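User: What would this chain look like folded?
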Amino acid sequence: MARPLKPQTPLAERLIRARGAMRRTEAANRLKTHPVTLGSYERGAALPTAEVLIAMREVYDVSLDWLLAGVGEMRQRPGAPPEVTPDRRRLRSALRAFVDAVASHPAMLDRTPDDLADWIVRGYDWLGSLTSEGHDGETLHPPLKEA
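Assistant: Here's the prediction, encoded as structure tokens.
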């Protein structure tokens, strides 16, 4: 388990905020750096290279002005939809399969609110398993079992 970060600089605090809920290992992979190196940036023990900062701008969708100096808006394009990455494409495909399943089984919507909520939670869990395990190129089959 990763050590909790104690940012020592305002830049380090912004780096952590920019990464958000993304795991450090995933962020490091996408930034093409090592998780320990990313941790040193996020503690303020080292400064990111120009290449890493440019990658952070793209991966985290943040403004370099905000990231480096705390100036302006955090997001590059406030209100703009995030870039469609392979992870987002897979999630979008999974959500589409779930919506299509709902549309093809309208009787599920006639359930009690509690039954429908349970079914949606199962769908949410199913989506989480897809994003954590990865299912590129596979046909997706959402859970349609009744409660």
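The longest helix spans residues 113-133. If you want, I can go into more detail on any region.
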